[in-house]
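wait is this the right file?? whatever heres the structure
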């Protein structure tokens, strides 16, 4: 899958650039950074309201039946997860069944401690279920070698962590490039792509800064660029807007909707209903279970 970089990302949430937003793709070209991230511009007059153009959003009146659904890319089947603390088994997730289809944008909501990050870690192969199985693109990880799992995770899944997880001693550029040290697509100039991605998220002038020299929003953008470095088909984002002001959060969300319109499958955890409404579907995790399990 190619990262399609568009010229009119989310710079004017107040404006109605819906038509332009859907038609002016220039694949491979990077937009002027102010067109993607305008977070330094703060309005003192009115509280910021995030309004993104997207024809398939619920607000635009498109029903679920109009959403295009592809084959399943993520299947969580009868999954249970518990941790052992001393002699005690502490159940965290139980009876989790979830199918996410290609090109879907799914939001996961639920109270703190309900198991959202645990579920996302399982989907991203960062942890293993106690029972049940996870399939990615039809492949059951239990049947794959460690090398195959690492390759699948490295190339097909972009992961944005709740706490960014940038390496403090590496620059923004090195952090973005880091996943390519383990896995990379053939024929890709990773340094060039890392620079392009940083430019895309408006951080061209911060490439050589270390995470400690970046604001929270800037660090989050580095994490987005890093998640996209191997051009993954699936983007998993754990509270990508949780630490950001509303304007920057809206810009990040605008980027997600654009990536989703390019065909990426996105699973995003959020506490914010105003953010979740931009997803195709919302699942609610409560007490370690999915409360509204319907596709
Ligand atoms: N490694 C671990 N060992 C033991 N318990 C854990 C471990 N990781 C998570 N937990 C517990 O699992 C539960 C679910 O945690 P999780 O991080 O999935 O919640 P969450 O829904 O993402 O919460 P938040 O919204 O605050 O991020 C919590 O009670 C947490 O203490
Ligand atoms: Mg969490």
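ok assuming it is, sequence goes like this
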């Amino acid at each position: 899958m190619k990262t399609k970089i568009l010229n009119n990302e989310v710079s004017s949430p107040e404006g109605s650039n819906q038509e332009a937003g859907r038609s002016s793709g220039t694949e491979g070209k990077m937009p002027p950074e102010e067109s993607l991230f305008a977070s330094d511009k703060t309005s003192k007059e009115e509280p910021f309201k995030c309004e993104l153009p997207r024809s398939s959003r619920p607000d635009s009146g498109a029903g679920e039946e109009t959403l295009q659904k592809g084959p399943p890319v993520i299947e969580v089947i009868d999954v249970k997860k518990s941790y052992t603390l001393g002699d005690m088994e502490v159940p965290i997730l139980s009876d989790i069944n979830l199918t996410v289809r290609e090109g879907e944008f799914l939001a996961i909501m639920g109270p703190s401690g309900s198991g959202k990050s645990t579920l996302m870690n399982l989907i991203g192969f960062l942890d293993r279920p106690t029972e049940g199985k996870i399939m990615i693109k039809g492949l059951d990880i239990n049947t794959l070698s460690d090398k195959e799992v690492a390759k699948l995770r490295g190339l097909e899944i972009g992961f944005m962590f709740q706490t960014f997880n940038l390496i403090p001693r590496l620059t923004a550029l090195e952090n973005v490039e880091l996943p390519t040290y383990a896995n990379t697509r053939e024929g890709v100039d990773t340094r060039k792509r890392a620079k392009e991605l940083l430019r895309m998220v408006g951080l061209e002038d911060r490439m050589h800064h270390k995470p400690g020299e970046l604001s929270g929003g800037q660090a989050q953008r580095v994490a987005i660029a890093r998640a996209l470095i191997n051009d993954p088909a699936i983007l998993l984002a754990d509270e990508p807007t949780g630490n950001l002001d509303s304007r920057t959060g809206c810009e990040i969300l605008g980027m997600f909707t654009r990536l989703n319109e390019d065909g990426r499958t996105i699973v995003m955890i959020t506490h914010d209903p105003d953010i979740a409404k931009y997803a195709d579907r919302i699942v609610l995790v409560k007490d370690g279970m999915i409360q509204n399990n319907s596709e």
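The chain has one domain: 18-67+102-120+141-284. so i think its the right one actually
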